[in-house]
Amino acid sequence: MRRFIATALLCLPLAQAQAADLPSAIAAAGAIKVAIVPNYPPLEYRDPATNTLAGFDVELGEAIARKLGLRLVWQETSFDQMMPAITTGRVDAIMSGMTDLATRHGAASFVDYLRSGPQFFIQQSRAAEFADLAALCGRNVGTSRRTSFPKEIASWSDAHCPGKSIVVVGTEGSADARTQLKQGRIDAAVQGNETLPYIMEQEPKAYATLGGPIAFQFTGIALPVQETGLQQAVATALDGLIADGTYKAMLAKWHLSDNGIEKAAINAGQ
Q: In terms of C-beta density within 10 A (0-12 exposed, 13-18 middle, 19 or more buried), how is residue 110 classed?
C-alpha cells in the first residue's frame, strides 16, 4: 500500500505537484508578478512593429508560468528599481537578463537559465586596427556601468596589458556603448555574448567581435531569498522545459544555442 501511495504521488501533474511550493499569495492570485526592463534584445525588448514585449526571456518566462499553472504579469521598471522591487515584495520575481552574482545573493536567490560572458566587439570598419585582443591595450573600451563588465574588463586588462591598461568608459547601457562606438568616442565595447549575434544581425556589417568571452557567468531569474519553495518550483519547471525540448527550440529561435544550460541551478553565480 505504501509503495502504491508513493507511486501515485510521483505521478501527480507537474503544476499540481508544484502548487504546494508556491507562496500563498501567488497561489491565491493564480499569477506571478515579474519585473522586466525591455531594453536588452534578444532577451527582452519591445517589438517596434507592435510595441509588445518580445524576446527569449519573455517567451521562457511565460512558458515557466504555464508549467506552474500561473498567469504571468510583467511589470516594467528601471534597472535600479528591480532589486528594491523584489526585496519589498512589489514583484515576485525578476526576469530581465540579470547576472547571477554572489554579491547579489543577500538580496535575491537566482534560478539560472543561461550561460554567457562579456565579449569585446569593434566597428567592422576599424577591424584592421585590431589584429588580436592585445590591440585593445591602452584603448578606450565602453560598457554599461550597471553591470559587472567594468570590473571584468579591468581584470582582463591587468592580466594582459602590463603598463598599458585599457581605459574603461562606463556607459548608460549597451545601446549607449554602441552609440559611442559608432561616434568614435570609444575604440571598442563590451556586452554579453548572448546579445551580440542578434545585434549583428540587426545591423549587418556594423560590428565585428574580437576574441571570445573573457569570463563566464550565469543569467538567472531573481526570486525572494526566503521563498525556497518558489525557487525549487521554478527550477523544476525550467527542467521540464529542458526535458520536453521547448527550451532548446527557444534557444535556436533567438540565436542562443551556444548559451544554453543542461539543468537549472540555484545560485551558481560567483
A: buried
Task: Give the Cβ contact number of residue 204 at 10 Å.
Answer: 8
Question: Which SS3 state, helix, strand or coil, does residue 125 take?
Answer: helix
Q: How far apart (Å, rounded) are the C-alpha atoms in residues 265 and 202? A: 32
Strands (E), 138-264: 140-144, 167-171, 188-192, 207-210, 217-223
Q: Using CA atoms, how far apart are residues 227 and 89, in angstroms rounded to an integer?
A: 11
- For 47, the 3-state DSSP assignment is coil
Nearest Cα to Cα of residue 100 among 148, 167, 52, 32: 148
In whole angstroms, what is the distance from residue 66 CA to residue 70 CA?
6
pLDDT of residue 20: 57
Q: How far apart are CA 40 and CA 146, in angstroms?
A: 13
Please say whether the dihedral angle defined by the alpha carbons of residues 67, 73, 77 and 81, taken in this order, is positive or negative.
negative
Structural domains of the chain ordered from first start: 2-116+217-266 (3.40.190.10), 118-210 (3.40.190.10)
Rounded to two decimals, the pTM is 0.84
* Bond into 42 cis (ω within 30): yes
Cβ neighbours of residue 235 closer than 8 Å, sequence gap 6 or more: 111, 264, 265, 266
Q: Name the CA radius of gyration of the chain, rounded.
A: 20
Q: What does the DSSP assignment read for 171-187?
A: ESSHHHHHHHHHHTSSS
Report pLDDT digits (tens) over 18-75.
555 899 999 999 999 999 999 889 999 999 999 999 999 999 999 999 999 999 999 9
Question: Residues 6 or more apart from 244 whose CB is under 8 A from it?
Answer: none
**pLDDT at res. 21:** 82
